[in-house]
TrEMBL record:
Keywords, alphabetical: Coiled coil, DNA recombination
A Pfam family this chain is assigned to: RmuC
InterPro entries: DNA_recombination_RmuC
Family of the protein in this entry: Belongs to the RmuC family.
Source domain of life: Bacteria
Keyword Coiled coil: yes
GO-annotated biological processes: DNA recombination
Protein name: DNA recombination protein RmuC
Coiled coil regions, renumbered to chain: 24-58, 104-138, 385-419
Organism, scientific name: Lutispora thermophila DSM 19022
Functional description taken from the UniProt entry: Involved in DNA recombination.
Length: 439
């Protein structure tokens, strides 16, 4: 095919050449020359046609031979492939059979192993269940024993506690009987006016003793010159001048028991008329006692221009305070303040705080002097602290320098190869022996 294309190209080039030659010469010359060239071309064309026929024949023969060879080659290749495929198929069947046999043997082996494992596991589970049952039984026995012991102990403790409580109840009943007897005796004692007064005085004295110091009040002191009447207690108050003079605050205890008990009994019986009558009698009794205290004990400027009446029972004080206008009337007319146990304690506490404040004020000059001394000493202490700070800074710098040197030594020691354990131990023993020898 390639040769035919070359011939065609050659013919086309000749034709182009003939056309160019024909244009250059004259028509005759051109024709003559053209004829010659045409004849030459025809002869060449004829030669080429013969060559082409020969070439075509040769090509056909070669193609026939090639087809035979290719057919033979394809047939041989096909036979070879078929034989290879057959061999591979046989080999694959053999491998599959071998794999099936192996899988069957493996499955059988696995079944045997699983059966053995199942039997072993079942045996172990039975053993564990047996052990657990034995342990649970032992635990149950232990728990039962402990529960029995605990129950017996707690029941014993409970019975013991109940017995103790019953014994305490019996003791309490006995104490209540004794207390009832004591109350009866107290009632008998309190029926005497002097005894009741002494009891109120004792209670007032206990309150004063708990809150004030003995130097802050007098006992049974006369507040009027050449008078035999003595007030039970008088609190020592500082005078206005602050030069050692003092002013006394009279306090006297009163306990109108009969009037108060008649009012209480009337209230318990639900008799408002009797209760109101007893309350009026109590009010008149309180006014009379206030007048008596005012006349006997108030003596300005030796005493304050007022005094305090102490009622030793809270319920009595509450009843007096409940009477409308009674306390205000007594305070305005007789300059008497009425106080119960709780209000007396509060009043004395406030007085005690006042005494302390006054003592602090009197000693303020000493405090200021002490503060001046402390200030001067504190300045010296500041100088000492500055010196100490400088010393600490110097010590810190010294420690930092030692730390830097230690780090430098550590960096240098990193390059030193460590001795083996036995050699290092031997070296240490040698050093110890040398040290012992030196010692």
């Amino acid at each position: 095919m390639e040769t035919i294309l070359q011939l065609g190209a050659f013919i086309i080039s000749l034709l182009v050449l003939l056309v160019m030659l024909a244009e250059r010469g004259s028509a005759a010359k051109r024709n003559e020359k053209l004829k010659q060239e045409i004849s030459a071309v025809e002869s060449k064309t004829e030669y080429l046609e013969k060559a082409l026929d020969k070439l075509e024949k040769t090509l056909r023969e070669e193609m026939v031979l090639s087809r035979g060879e290719v057919s033979n080659s394809m047939k041989g290749l096909s036979d070879s492939l078929i034989s290879r495929i057959n061999e591979m198929s046989k080999l694959q069947h053999m491998q599959v059979d071998s794999m099936d046999n192996r899988m069957a043997r493996l499955a059988q082996t696995n079944e045997e192993k699983l059966e053995a494992m199942r039997k072993e596991l079942e045996s172990k589970l039975n053993s564990i269940m047996k052990e657990n049952s034995e342990k649970l039984e032992a635990m149950r026995i232990t728990v039962d024993e402990k529960l029995n012991d605990t129950l017996e102990k707690r029941l014993g403790d409970s019975f013991k506690l109940v017995s103790e409580r019953l014994e305490q109840v019996h003791k309490g009943l006995g104490e209540m009987q004794i207390l009832a007897t004591g109350v009866g005796d107290l009632k008998k004692v309190l029926t005497n006016v002097k005894t009741r007064g002494i009891w109120g005085e004792i209670q007032l004295g206990n309150i004063l003793e708990q809150i004030l110091t003995p130097e802050q009040y007098y006992t049974n002191i006369s507040t009027k010159k050449n008078s035999l009447e003595k007030v039970e207690f008088a609190i020592r108050l500082p005078g206005k001048g602050g030069d050692g003079e003092e002013v006394l605050l009279p306090i006297d205890a009163k306990f109108p028991q009969e009037d108060f008990y008649r009012m209480v009994e009337a209230g318990e019986k639900g008799d408002p008329v009797a209760m109101e009558e007893a309350a009026k009698q109590l009010e008149n009794r309180i006014k009379a006692e206030a007048k008596r205290i005012s006349e006997k004990y108030i003596n300005p400027p030796v005493t304050t221009d007022f005094a305090i009446m102490f009622l030793p029972i809270e319920s009595l004080y509450a009843e007096v305070a409940k009477r409308a206008g009674l306390m205000e009337h007594i305070q305005e007319k007789y300059k008497i303040n009425i106080s119960g146990p709780s209000t007396m304690a509060a009043f004395l506490n406030s007085l005690s705080m006042g005494f302390r404040t006054l003592a602090i004020q009197r000693r303020s000059s000493e405090v200021w002097a002490l503060l001046g001394t402390v200030k001067s000493e504190f300045a010296k202490f500041g100088d000492i602290l500055d010196k100490t700070n400088k010393k600490l800074q110097e010590a810190t710098k010294t420690i930092e320098a030692a730390t830097k040197k230690t780090r430098t030594i550590e960096r240098k020691l990193k390059d030193v190869e460590a001795l083996p354990l036995e050699e290092s131990a031997l070296s240490l023993d040698t050093d110890e022996l040398m040290y012992d020898g030196e010692v």
